[in-house]
Design brief:
Structural class: mainly alpha
Number of strands: 0
Radius of gyration: 16 Å
Strand content: under 5%
Number of helices: 9
């Protein structure tokens, strides 16, 4: 269990995601917790691990604070709505939606951004707020709302979706998308 917990920490710190997707099965199948308890415990575990890792990324200048806060606030609203909506959709349909979401996101990450050179160059400035002067606030709020809706609907996949959204849709370089996702 400790080795697997270390794997979760490495996944979160390195990739900015994978926390709940890895933690809930470990708590359930390795440590024998009931699923509801495992889900609740994973919130604390992943939140704490993400906070510690976000500090490290922030010190290294890999967090876009305004982007992360705006995205997070919109994501919380979307997750609340997705959670409410998910209560009306059969579990089998939710699992199919989750699988489709994982495939589409994976393919998008493999394909990458079309404007990679322009976006990466413009976002590579200092990690300070000056790099966020031209912040596309409406786009960040919309992306956050949609990612929150998807994660609230299927119950997992926050970092798994946030990093690609920040990288592909928001134009942040991967290292900064990871650090901002942890925020």
């Amino acid at each position: 269990a400790l080795a697997l917990a270390a794997l979760v920490g490495v996944s979160l710190g390195l990739l900015g995601g994978g926390g709940s997707i890895l933690t809930v099965p470990i708590l359930t199948y390795v440590l024998g917790m009931e699923p509801r308890e495992a889900i609740a415990a994973s919130l604390f575990i992943v939140g704490t691990t993400s906070a510690v890792s976000a500090i490290t990324h922030a010190k290294a200048g890999r967090v876009r604070w305004k982007t992360g806060i705006l995205f997070g606030l919109a994501g919380m609203a979307g997750a609340f709505g997705g959670g409410l909506l998910g209560g009306y959709i059969p579990g089998v349909v939710l699992m199919i939606l989750f699988a489709i979401m994982m495939i589409v996101t994976s393919l998008a990450m493999i394909r990458g951004r079309k404007d990679r050179g322009r976006s990466a160059g413009s976002a590579e400035g200092s990690a300070g707020e000056s790099a966020e002067r031209g912040l596309p606030v409406a786009r960040i709020l919309l992306d956050g709302l949609l990612v929150g809706l998807a994660t609230g609907l299927v119950g997992a996949g926050g970092g798994f979706l946030i990093v690609p959204a920040l990288n592909l849709l928001g134009g942040l370089p991967m290292a900064i998308a990871v650090g901002t996702s942890l925020l």
